[in-house]
Amino acid sequence: MTTSVQVQKRPLYQKIMVIASVILFVGGALTGIMTYKNVGITETFMTDWFSSFGIAALVMVPTGYIMMTVVSKLIQISMPNSRKKHQQVVTGLTMAVIMESVMALSTTANTIGYADKNTFLLAWSQAFITALPFGLCMAIVMSVFLKPKLDQFMAS
Hints:
Layout: H1 12-39, H2 45-78, H3 84-111, H4 117-155
Helix pairs in contact: 1-2, 1-3, 1-4, 2-3, 3-4
């Protein structure tokens, strides 16, 4: 007697909702921190934050996908004998620095502008450094705990 077990794939909308919630939480928190550092709590803070988040989301999704592929391959090549967890941590930390640099760039461009190069560079570096502890913490959590579970979820 043979029994067949059908494995049901998760609907695409569930996968999209999970990824969107991660992007909303991490991207929203990081752009919120960066916007606060750039402009403080002002009458336009919410507008500045939402527009910074929108721009960052549009830039970060394709950038993140491309950079994650490249960084993962480079880490595998440069650390072939390391444990998978070690590779995941290095990948996560590297991605945090890259993604936050780009996110700080887009947030600072949105809130400060490019009119004065020195002001822009100072605001960018302050936004980046202020958000870095949160970003590094999220990178560790994402790369060690969440990414393996997300990969499983997306494959189902």
